[in-house]
C-alpha cells in the first residue's frame, strides 16, 4: 500500500486520465461507490446523515455518495458548502446526475446548517480534498468549527477537510474525523504524529489507479501482512543452525543487566541460529542461566562497564547488535567503536550505542557493510542537531536526509515507525499499541532486528519484518490476556511465537 503527498497523488490521477485513458468521471464514480460501501458498514438506515459537499473532486465524490446512499434507502441531507459556480467539471456532472435521480441539494446557511448538524447522527465530510493550501476561512471554517462541536459520528472522504496531505505544515484548522475513507493511497499526514489523530480510524479504497504509476511517483509504502507473508524467511527441511545466522550482542553493564538479556532472548526467539552475548563478567553470571541457549564472552571492564572487545574475534559473526544497557562512559566508546569499524558485516546500533555514535558516524558511514540505526525521535534529533519538535514535524524528510548522508538504514521508532534505506525507500510499520511505551521494548526490537537481518533476503525486508512481528506480538497479547498498562517487554518476547504462527 502506497503513501503519497498531494503532489504525488495528483500526478497519479492526471496520468491515469491522460495516459491510461480512464475518464475522470469514472474515477469519481468508483471513488463514491467504494466509499459508500465502507460508509454502509458503519451506519444504519435509521441514522440521519448530513453530507457536506464542497467544490472540486472531493465534492464530486460526495454527490456520488449521496446518490448511492439515497438509492439504497439511507436517510440523507446534502448541504453544498460552495457556490454553484464553483461546482465545475466532473463534480458538476455528478451533481446533475444526483439531481436527475431526484436528489435535493440545500445550500449552506449558518443557522440552518447548524441546526441540521445538531440533529445529525452521522456527518459525511466531502468539503475539501488534498489540495488545501493555507488556513481555512469563510463558510468552510465556520462549518468545520460547527462539525467539531457535534456528538455525531464523522466520516471524512479521502482526507479530513482542512488537513494538509503531507508533513511539515504546523498551522491549520481541520475536521476531526472518527473515520476517514482514503481514496487510492494513504496520505502522508495520516502517519505523522501531529496530524494522524484527525483521521480517526482510516481505511483505503481502490478505485482503479494503476499500481505502476504509484511505483513511479513515490518511494513510500505501508508494510502489511501480505508483505510480511511474502518475505518472511521459510526454513528448508535440511537446514541447520549455521544457516540462520551467527549473531553477536554487545551490551549490558552492572547497573543495566536486564536490557542485554532481553535482546539476547528476543534474537533467539526470532530465529537466530547461533547467538553470543558479550558483556561484563557480573552481568553474564546474572543472565546466563536465564538464557542458556546463548553463548557468552566476558569483555574488558571498568566499574562494571565494558571498556574493550579486543578478545573477541569479530570475523566469526554474521551481524552485530550493540548498545543496549551499554552505559555512557567515554571509555566504553573508545574501547569498542574502533574495533567495530573493522567488522565486515551488518552492525545494528541502538540505545547507549547511539549516544556514543556521533563522533564515529562518518567513519561508520564510510564502511561498505550495512549500518542499521534504531533511534527514537530524541536520539535522532541529537544525531542531526535539530529539535525533536522539528523532527516530528517532518520525520520522512529528516529520515531521508540522514540515510542519504550517512549511507545507512534508519529505523525511526514511534506509533508509526518509519524505516528508510540508503536509496530513500521508506516503509511505515503501524502495528503495536501504547503497551510498548515501556522500558525494554526497544531492547527487544533490537534483538529481533538482529535475528531477522541474518535470515532475510535483504536487510530492508529483515528490518521491516522485525518491526511487524514486534508490534503484532504486542497487539495479540493485549487482545488476549494483557492490558496496555501491564504489558512488559519480556511479555513481547513470549508473544513472538504466536505472532509468527498467526501472521506468517
UniProtKB/TrEMBL annotation:
Domain YjeF N-terminal: 9-215
Residues that bind (6S)-NADPHX: 57-61, 129-135, 158, 325, 376, 443
Entry's EC annotation: 4.2.1.136, 5.1.99.6
NADP found in the keyword field: yes
Cofactor: Mg(2+); K(+)
Its biological purpose: Catalyzes the epimerization of the S- and R-forms of NAD(P)HX, a damaged form of NAD(P)H that is a result of enzymatic or heat-dependent hydration. This is a prerequisite for the S-specific NAD(P)H-hydrate dehydratase to allow the repair of both epimers of NAD(P)HX. Catalyzes the dehydration of the S-form of NAD(P)HX at the expense of ADP, which is converted to AMP. Together with NAD(P)HX epimerase, which catalyzes the epimerization of the S- and R-forms, the enzyme allows the repair of both epimers of NAD(P)HX, a damaged form of NAD(P)H that is a result of enzymatic or heat-dependent hydration.
Protein name: Bifunctional NAD(P)H-hydrate repair enzyme
Protein's gene: nnrD
Amino acid at each position: 500500500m502506497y503513501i503519497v503527498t498531494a503532489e504525488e497523488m495528483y500526478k497519479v490521477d492526471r496520468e491515469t486520465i491522460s495516459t491510461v485513458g480512464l475518464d475522470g468521471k469514472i474515477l469519481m464514480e468508483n471513488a463514491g461507490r467504494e466509499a459508500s460501501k465502507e460508509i454502509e458498514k458503519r451506519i444504519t438506515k435509521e441514522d440521519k446523515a448530513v453530507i457536506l459537499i464542497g467544490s472540486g473532486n472531493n465534492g464530486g465524490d460526495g454527490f456520488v455518495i449521496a446518490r448511492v446512499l439515497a438509492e439504497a434507502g439511507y436517510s440523507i441531507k446534502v448541504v453544498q458548502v460552495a457556490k454553484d459556480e464553483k461546482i465545475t467539471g466532473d463534480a458538476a456532472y455528478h451533481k446533475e446526475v444526483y439531481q436527475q435521480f431526484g436528489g435535493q441539494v440545500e445550500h449552506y446557511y449558518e443557522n440552518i446548517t447548524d441546526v441540521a448538524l445538531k440533529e445529525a447522527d452521522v456527518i459525511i465530510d466531502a468539503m475539501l480534498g488534498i489540495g488545501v493550501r493555507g488556513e481555512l476561512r469563510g463558510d468552510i471554517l465556520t462549518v468545520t468549527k460547527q462539525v467539531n462541536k457535534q456528538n455525531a459520528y464523522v466520516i471524512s472522504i479521502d482526507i479530513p477537510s482542512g488537513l494538509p496531505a503531507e508533513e511539515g505544515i504546523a498551522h491549520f484548522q481541520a475536521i476531526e474525523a472518527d473515520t476517514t475513507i482514503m481514496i487510492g493511497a494513504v496520505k502522508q499526514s495520516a502517519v505523522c504524529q501531529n496530524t494522524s489523530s484527525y483521521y480517526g480510524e482510516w481505511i483505503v479504497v481502490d478505485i482503479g489507479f494503476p499500481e505502476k504509476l504509484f511505483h513511479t511517483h513515490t518511494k513510500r509504502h505501508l508494510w502489511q501482512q501480505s508483505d510480511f507473508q511474502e518475505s518472511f524467511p521459510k526454513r528448508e527441511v535440511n537446514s541447520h543452525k549455521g544457516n540462520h545466522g551467527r549473531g553477536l550482542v554487545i551490551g549490558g553493564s552492572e547497573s543495566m543487566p536486564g536490557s542485554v538479556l532481553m535482546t539476547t532472548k528476543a534474537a533467539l526467539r526470532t530465529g537466530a541460529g547461533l547467538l553470543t552475548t558479550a558483556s561484563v563478567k557480573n552481568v553474564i553470571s546474572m543472565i546466563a542461566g536465564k538464557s542458556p541457549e546463548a553463548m557468552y564472552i566476558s569483555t574488558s571492564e571498568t566499574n562494571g562497564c565494558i571498556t574493550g572487545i579486543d578478545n573477541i574475534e569479530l570475523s566469526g559473526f554474521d551481524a552485530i547488535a550493540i548498545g543496549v544497557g551499554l552505559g555512557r562512559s567515554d571509555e566504553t566508546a573508545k574501547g569498542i567503536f574502533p574495533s567495530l569499524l573493522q567488522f565486515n558485516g551488518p552492525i545494528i546500533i541502538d540505545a547507549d550505542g547511539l549516544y556514543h555514535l556521533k563522533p564515529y558516524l562518518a567513519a561508520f558511514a564510510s564502511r561498505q557493510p550495512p549500518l542499521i540505526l534504531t533511534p527514537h525521535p530524541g536520539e535522532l534529533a541529537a544525531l542531526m542537531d535539530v529539535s525533536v519538535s522539528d523532527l516530528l514535524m517532518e520525520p520522512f524528510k529528516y529520515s531521508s536526509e540522514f540515510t542519504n548522508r550517512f549511507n545507512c538504514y534508519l529505523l525511526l521508532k514511534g506509533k508509526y515507525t518509519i524505516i528508510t534505506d540508503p536509496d530513500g525507500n521508506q516503509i511505515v510499520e503501524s502495528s503495536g499499541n501504547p503497551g510498548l511505551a515501556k522500558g525494554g521494548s526497544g531492547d527487544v526490537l533490537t534483538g529481533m532486528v538482529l535475528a531477522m537481518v541474518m535470515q532475510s533476503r535483504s536487510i530492508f525486508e529483515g528490518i521491516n519484518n522485525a518491526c511487524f512481528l514486534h508490534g503484532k506480538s504486542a497487539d495479540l497479547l493485549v487482545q488476549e490476556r494483557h492490558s496496555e498498562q501491564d504489558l512488559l517487554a519480556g511479555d513481547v518476547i513470549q508473544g513472538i511465537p504466536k505472532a509468527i504462527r498467526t501472521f506468517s
